[in-house]
Design goal:
This protein is α/β, with parallel strands linked by helices. The strands form four sheets. Strands 14, 18, 19, 20, 21, 23, 24, 25, 26 and 27 form a ten-stranded mixed sheet that branches. Strands 10, 11, 12, 13, 15, 16, 17 and 22 form an eight-stranded mixed sheet that branches. Strands 2-4-3-7-8-9 form a six-stranded mixed sheet, with helices on both faces. The chain starts with a helix and ends with a helix.
Length: about 725
């Protein structure tokens, strides 16, 4: 018997037995060690970020920004991934059987690669980016580079703005070793009592609320900056009067900050999460960064008091915590940034001939609208859609998922306005969105106070899908306006995240979303979806059926092809299905931003698989699944990456794109991304990524993000001419 949801999704005549047989093909047909290590693959991704910071063709302040992104990414990797591996060792929990290695071995490999990358990161700043900024008039200098006038000026600044907020903490029999907060920058200071001759230790935290780089002087485009820790370390005498300063060194600690909640054992998710967030601050240490000149006496004290091993120590030159370069990267020097891209309004939502404000609902009624952010404006599409819905007297209800946004977001305000106008408003808030938990709790309560029905999803699952549903009364009947996206409802990140979103008035999608929201907010267990594939119950199965259909087409001599764009490709069942399709001769193109466990180009297994990665000014974030389907192309977009957490422990949704011209648009985008003339990184079967950014003559290859923006601008101009 064919399950209804598979028939309705247009997935052909495969049933569960077909699925089991497709997944259950003997592993003997596929070699062992066919997956690349996910943790090392992630480090390779961050290396690609670092390579952008090293690239002299990238504007200098953008290079500083990429170095800051690298540091921030690596912090999160340690706080979550490395912490998770250490937790497995402590609890005796083995890694999944498909990994084939012990957690200790994985940690050793991570330590090796991470040490090399952090040294390369520090060298990129010292030898490449810092000199490039200096050549452009932005100098980061040391205390020894200052003249007496500069030092007097900075002394006054220190006394007025820095000294009052500093809190030196002594370590002696009366003062135990202080708590060191995660990711804080600190000075370890040794002093001698001038009267007793006794040596003491003190810890001083560099205040995170102050500018990391203090401006020393500015003359037109020429400016000089001094690291805040350098300023503080040269005024330690003011903090320890009567003491002799013997030595001082910077250090930085990373803690386990992953949150683990047993939802089935708690009666109140919000209270449990708030308690866990308090515990997060006191997670065990997992990395200690120190400067290269730290003496053994100080290091031994830190190792003992922090209970950390030598393997977890990262000895680095130059300033620690290069996330501070985010501040420098915001300097207003247009010549040192990427040329500006101005998002355009999607053609369907552009004002009419008299420049009147567009009717978003009327535009959607004319046909499905596919928008591409940030090339097309989030404000004039998604935001305008919800703001119009909040004000429209014919709108009766709004339902929306919220994963990451902000309390001052116009999206949140639109929901509040709608509730205050008497509409039914449901907001499904994912309070477990990592590192946004506290913020999400705050604005979830703000929504509740405004009368919005706030729910927190299903026990044991994160709600990661990006869905909005507006119910409008028209001519005595109710009509559903739907939005399914690949990115969060966040106006700030929409300007730097590349994402796709579909607006449709198709009643099938409206019913799908209604059923899904009912499942998320109530007790319904719904399995019938027509244009959606939904995790955790059906998304993996649906995709494997689609992949297997391409395999069967290839074996029958029909047109076949698979194109997948994701942030991460890790799931073994999906990867094995792609391997089997490759063995049948299906050409497969994988466009991945981050982790990829596929080994492409292996004879007899994956020689028909090509894997590329693209990084640039925008974070590639959309997910696309396209199938040639014997000449009747199909494509899906949505929120799901090919990872266990997305397919098994999250509510995810993909929507099938129905308009042929929009399917063609997605395939055109793919063709551009996979072209040898486009700048990208290529993955080899050995797991090594190779950058291809210039042609044989040394000329730069096409930047897909620049070209996409130009194409979108041309579409707008062509409509204006008509």
């Amino acid at each position: 018997m064919i399950p209804d949801e598979m028939l309705d999704s247009g997935l052909g005549d495969a049933d569960d037995d077909d699925f089991d047989s497709a997944v259950g093909i003997a592993d003997a047909e596929l070699p062992d060690h066919r997956y690349l290590d996910r943790e090392l693959s992630w480090l390779s991704f961050n290396q690609r970020v670092l390579e952008l910071g090293e690239d002299p063709r990238v504007p200098a302040l953008e290079r500083a920004n990429f170095l800051a992104i690298f540091g921030s990414n690596l912090d999160e990797f340690f706080m979550v991934r490395v912490a998770g591996l250490k937790r497995r060792i402590i609890t005796g929990l083995a890694l999944p059987s498909n990994v084939g290695r012990a957690a200790q071995d994985v940690l050793a490999d991570i330590s090796r690669d991470a040490h090399a990358l952090q040294l390369r990161h520090a060298e990129a700043w010292q030898s490449l980016v810092k000199p490039a900024l200096a050549d452009a008039g932005i100098e980061v200098i040391g205390w020894g580079d200052l003249d007496e006038t500069d030092r007097e000026t900075l002394h006054d600044y220190f006394q007025a703005q820095v000294f009052p907020v500093l809190m030196p903490l002594a370590v002696d029999p009366a003062h135990p070793f202080p708590y060191i907060s995660g990711l804080s920058l600190n000075l370890a200071i040794r002093v001698r009592n001038a009267k007793t001759g006794r040596q003491e230790f003190a810890r001083l935290k560099v205040p995170p609320m102050l500018p990391r780089f203090v401006r020393v002087s500015r003359d037109g485009d020429h400016a000089r900056y001094l690291p805040l820790e350098d300023l503080i370390s040269n005024h330690l005498g003011d903090l320890f009067p009567g003491m002799e300063i013997l030595d001082h060194h910077a250090f930085r600690l990373t803690r386990n900050e992953d949150v683990v909640i047993e939802e089935d054992e708690t009666e109140n998710l919000i209270q449990a999460l708030e308690a866990e967030l308090l515990r997060r601050r006191f997670g065990p240490p997992i990395r200690l960064e120190i400067t290269v000149d730290m003496d053994d006496l100080t290091l031994d004290l830190l190792l003992k008091e922090l209970d950390i091993t030598e393997q977890e120590v990262y000895r680095l030159p130059g300033p620690l915590d290069l996330r501070g370069l985010f501040d420098l990267s915001r300097i207003d020097r247009p010549d040192l940034h990427f040329p500006p891209h101005v998002p355009t309004t999607a053609v369907a939502f552009q004002p009419g001939d008299n420049n009147e404000r567009p009717d978003i609902f009327a535009a959607i009624r004319k046909g499905d609208v596919l928008v591409h952010h940030p090339y097309e404006s989030f404000a004039t599409s998604v935001q305008a859609f919800l703001e119009q819905a909040a004000k429209d007297p014919h709108v009766l209800a709004i339902k929306q998922t919220l994963y990451r946004t902000s309390g001052d977001s116009p999206i949140v305000q639109a929901l509040i306005d709608a509730a205050e106008a008497g509409k039914q408003v449901l907001a499904l808030v994912e309070v477990k969105a990592r590192f946004d938990e506290a913020n999400n709790i705050v604005w979830a309560r703000k929504l509740e106070k405004a009368g919005v029905h706030v729910v927190y999803g299903l026990v044991g699952l994160k709600t990661h899908c990006k869905l909005a549903l507006v119910i409008r009364q028209e001519g005595g009947v109710l009509r559903s306006y739907s939005h399914v996206g690949t990115g969060n409802y966040n106006p700030k990140t929409s300007r730097i995240y590349e994402d796709l979103g579909l607006f449709t008035v198709d009643p099938d999608v409206g019913r799908d979303l209604t059923r899904l929201f009912n499942e998320l907010s109530g007790y319904a267990i719904e399995k019938k979806f027509k244009r959606l594939l939904v995790a955790p119950l059906h998304l993996r199965k649906g995709l494997i059926r689609l992949i297997d259909r391409e395999r069967r087409n290839a074996e029958s001599g029909k047109l076949a092809g698979i194109r997948i764009k994701v942030n991460s490709m890790v799931d073994e069942q999906i990867i094995d299905a792609l391997y089997r399709a490759s063995q049948a001769g299906v050409p497969i193109q994988i466009w991945v931003r981050g982790i990829c466990s596929i080994r492409p180009g292996v004879p007899g297994m994956s020689e028909n698989i090509t894997v590329r990665s693209i990084l640039g000014r925008y974070l590639e974030h959309s997910r696309i699944f396209a199938f040639r389907n014997d000449g009747d192309p199909q494509a899906y977009i949505g929120s799901a990456d090919m990872m266990h957490r997305n397919l098994d422990r999250r509510v995810e949704a993909l929507v099938r794109i129905a308009a042929p011209e929009q399917v063609a648009e997605l395939n055109d985008l793919f063709a551009l991304a996979m072209s040898d003339e486009t700048s990208s990184w290529w993955l080899g079967e050995d797991g090594v990524w190779t950058r291809h950014s210039t042609n044989a003559d040394g000329a730069p290859l096409t930047d897909i993000q620049d070209k996409t923006m130009a194409m979108v601008q041309r579409r707008r101009r062509s409509r204006a001419v008509r």
